[in-house]
Specification:
The chain is of the alpha+beta class. It folds into two domains: 72 residues, no CATH class; 102 residues, no CATH class. Helix content is 54%, strand content 11%. Strands 1, 2, 3 and 4 form a four-stranded antiparallel beta sheet that branches. A hairpin with a 5-residue loop joins β3 and β4. α2 crosses α4. The longest helix is centred in the N-terminal third of the chain and has 20 residues. The radius of gyration is 22 Å and the shape is extended.
């Protein structure tokens, strides 16, 4: 799972880098980046450490490009910063969230997840004894895309059936960035703003 996730991130970063290098402005940007030296990078690092503005044009362009690539890369620090800004915007506009939910669908223990890994099972009469924990873990590790599909289907079902279905009243707003555990599987934290509590 971790290997597949890492490959997807690398492919995403490479495609974004190729896109930047193919733009018309690269004729100016390229030489600017090539002019960078260890001394310029060290000076910029020192300025950043002292919370000062980076003055070198080449370093500023490099940082902007890294931010552009990382801003859409799953799990990157730039992506997390972008999502934090979105979350703060929700709090500023809607106020403090009333409900905070964490969803970790548990692909290792769910019989439904095995269906996405093409295991022929009967969900309604599933017996855990037929699939030991280690066997289920190996099955999901061998099918990382099944883990992702199971996660997205589960979260979308929760949002559509429960949140938008009126479990907490009329849904005004929700926000939930996707994060990844150390071993690779995704999970999400949702902030929910329902009108039932008289805030809207």
């Amino acid at each position: 799972m971790c290997l597949c996730y890492d490959l997807l991130r690398r492919r995403h970063s490479l495609s974004k880098s190729n896109l930047i290098a193919s733009r018309d402005s690269w004729s100016v940007t390229g030489p600017l980046l090539e002019s960078l030296t260890d001394e310029k990078l060290a000076k910029a690092a020192n300025e950043a450490t002292q919370h000062k503005h980076v003055t070198d044009a080449g370093v500023k362009k490099l940082l902007a490009m890294v931010s552009s690539i990382g801003g859409t890369t799953p799990g990157s620090e730039e992506k997390k910063s972008y999502e934090l800004v979105q979350l703060k915007s929700s709090v500023v506009y809607f106020g403090i969230p009333v409900i905070y939910l964490t969803f970790n669908p548990g692909d290792n223990s769910s019989p439904i997840a095995l269906l996405y890994a093409w295991e022929d099972i009967d969900v309604k009469s599933f017996s855990p004894q037929l699939y030991a924990v280690g066997e289920r873990l190996n099955t999901m590790l061998a099918n990382p895309l099944a883990v992702v599909e199971y996660f997205h289907r589960t979260i979308n079902t929760v949002i559509q059936a429960l949140l938008k279905g009126g479990m907490f009243g009329e849904l005004v707003h929700h926000y939930g960035p996707i994060e990844y555990l150390d071993r690779g599987p995704p999970h999400t934290h949702l902030v929910v703003y329902p009108s039932k509590y008289g805030l809207f």
